[in-house]
Amino acid sequence: MHGPSSNSIASPSANAEINFRYLWMIAFVAALGGMLFGYDWVVIGGAKPFYESYFRLTSEAQIGWANSCALIGCFVGSFVGGRCSDYIGRKRALLFAALLFTVSSLFTGWAFSFTAFICWRILGGVAIGLVSNVSPTYIAEISPAEWRGRLVSLNQLSLVIGILGAQIVNWRIARPVPAALSAQAMAATWNVQYGWRWMFTAVAIPALLFMVATPFIPESPRWLVAHHQLSSAGHVLCKIGGKRYGQSELESIQRSLAGAHEKVTWSEMLHGKILRLLLVGIGLVVLQQGSGINILFNYAEEVYRSAGYGVNDILFNIVVTGSINLIFTIFAMLLVDRFGRRRLMLLGSVLIGMCHLGASIAYRMQIHGFWILALTLGAIACYAMTLAPITWVLITEIFPNRYRGTAVSISVAALWIASFVLTYTFPILNRVVGSAGAFLVYSGICFLGAIFIFLAVPETTGTSLDKIDA
What is the per-residue pLDDT across 290-332, written as a single tens digit (0 to 9) for each? Predict the structure, then answer.
């Protein structure tokens, strides 16, 4: 899977007349799922202090449950997403997710009991889980080998645009909060009564855009071949890269999917090389979440409040974190097909670990304000260039075609389990060991992750999916 072979593999599609306008258009529409993923996932960070006051949440368990309950839905959505998209098609699965986003955002925003709020957040999580599985898989399956890294990274770019969009909308919706308000006075403010509701409701706007745009994209050619729709698959491939490319890719997909009609069993998934690849995929997603970066999005209030910032400054700092995330995700798209997946993952794990270690020391020495902000922004920048996008690229690349849908589902389900554990336990961890101890734990996970990548993760840059399969 290393250098010499990748050149010969990439050459057929590299010489094809790729219709870049069409290719980027359909990839962009699929990546709108990633944008909704980011928006719906992070919107809770800005709404957090206000809905907590509205529902009178006080214990760490309640706060952790409110922040992490959507991840239960994410697990369900990601776990069934592969089988669902294998059965009804990638396109219909994306359309169904768009519908779930629209409905859940409206009902979450106008929930009047904590139980209803939790239920609708979980349903929104199902939509996130679906697109987290199907969007990158769809993009990988329509992409020529030498463009696959950048196009799959487009899903991550859309995700961080969604994150930044949610942060900006939250910041603009929230009205200024006077300092040192009592709990009773805070509960009576517009932000607590209505502001957080409009923050969640706003998710419906991009969800409707996604729902309208999805019918105009083609079905994945690999799904079409797997369901014996060769003429339709050939038409899609020819539209992407011309007749020569379409014929070559169609034959390649047919060869790689030989025997793919046979049902994948759990005994196959848990045996030999497939099990080893599955453990690599699970290890990558656990590292991505265990790096602790998502704490900086979902618990920004606690992180920056303990660094000495007030509510208004925290909301602005959250926008800054989203901006850094977006800028460095764009850099990642330029590097992912040039610098190498494995090398970037190694570099990212080490640099994020160092930033977390610095933050731990700063909290321990009570150095607050700018230095905490700078170290957390540094960690986000490194994450955006490495672990965030490349993990998604790798888990769509390393599995053979026949096992990809199920294996990606399992890997993404593991991601959401890891994310739930991270999100639910942070308030408790923060209370027990403090911010310094929490960042030290995340730092250690990053350094262990670097060792795992060095020992277990292969290089896939520039290699076609069918060659990786072989």
Answer: 999 888 877 877 788 777 777 667 778 888 888 998 898 888 7
pLDDT tops 70 at residue 466: no
Q: Which residue has the tokens 């265990």?
A: 290
349 or 417, greater pLDDT? 349
Enter the pTM of the model: 0.75
Residues 405, 411, 414, 420, CA torsion sign = negative
Please write the tens of the pLDDT for every residue from 76-109: 888 788 778 888 999 999 999 999 999 999 999 9
Q: How many CB atoms lie within 10 A of CB 325?
A: 27
Q: Which residue has the tokens 């799959």?
A: 152
Domain map of the chain by residue range? Answer: 3-217+262-469
- Please give the Cα distance from 5 to 383 (Å, whole number): 29
Selected residue with higher pLDDT from 231 and 157 = 231
If we measure between CA atoms, which residue out of 182, 178, 174, 76 comes closest to residue 130?
A: 76
First to last CA, the chain: 10
DSSP codes, 5-68? HHHHHHHHHHSS---HHHHHHHHHHHHHHHHHHHHHHHHHHHHHHHHHHHHT--SHHHHHHHHH
CATH class of 3-217+262-469: mainly alpha
How many whole angstroms separate alpha carbon 16 and alpha carbon 237? 11
Phi, psi of 321 (to 5 degrees): -60, -40
pLDDT in the model for residue 262:
61
Residue 358 has pLDDT above 60, yes or no: yes
Measured CA to CA, the distance from residue 173 to residue 321 in angstroms comes to 18
The sign of the torsion formed by the CA atoms of 223, 228, 232, 236 equals positive
Q: Which residues contact 212 (CB under 8 A, 6 or more apart)?
A: none
- Write the CA distances from 143 to 120, 137, 230, 240, 462, integer angstroms: 35, 10, 18, 9, 12
